[in-house]
Request: fold
Amino acid sequence: MRDVVLSKDMLRRLRQIYEELGREYDNVAEQLNFSCAGCPDNCCDSYFLHHTYAEWAYLQLGFQELDPAQQDEVLEKSRDYIRQCRQAESEGERPQSMCPLNKGGLCILYEHRMLVCRTHGVPATMMRPDGRVLRFPGCFRCQEIVGDQDVPSLSVERTPMLRRLALLESELLDNRRHLLPRVKMTIAEMIVKGPPVLPIPHCERNSCV
Ligand code: SF4
Ligand code: SF4
Reply:
């Protein structure tokens, strides 16, 4: 196995993607006069799966910076989260458990949180590789604010940022993304599994150079 390591340049680009997304989000939120302040809900208990080694590696970088006691606590919560999700799924329910990184309503790895955590809230659009456009209406509270407003002009266009993330992911995986195990994991699973590793290709294992 080999470690999946984000180079300095990849880290810079990933942070740039997150920052630009954050600016777009803030811009739309400001126009809608929307914020999470005073919300009775906390969407960190929403069930999301994440799909890139790049975000997994970046999340793990943040996790490794926590002190050992915090890491143990998060690991325990993550195992618990996974158990709860399995239980819900076995009962045919969509899991809904608080993210193991949320403490007292706040994210303890805020700088390392996932793309989905940075986009949930305001309306957004994205174009899939097959050309289909997906529209996200925003969270329940934002939908109340949006009401009858012209949503397309007041939404975050995620496509350019997602394309850049996909490019970065391909580069990180030496353009072998299609040959490698797919990532489809919760944050808890990414934490329990540890930093991402990849199988070494057969020819490299047998030093056929
Ligand atoms: S990573 Fe942070 S922002 Fe994202 S769901 Fe978990 S606690 Fe919430
Ligand atoms: S995104 Fe929406 S549901 Fe989530 S905390 Fe903010 S206002 Fe509440």
Notes: The mean pLDDT is 91. Residues 8-32 form the longest helix (25 residues). The pocket of iron/sulfur cluster (ligand 2) is lined by residues 36, 39, 41-43, 120-121, 139, 141-142 (CB under 6 Å). The first strand starts at residue 2 and ends at 3.
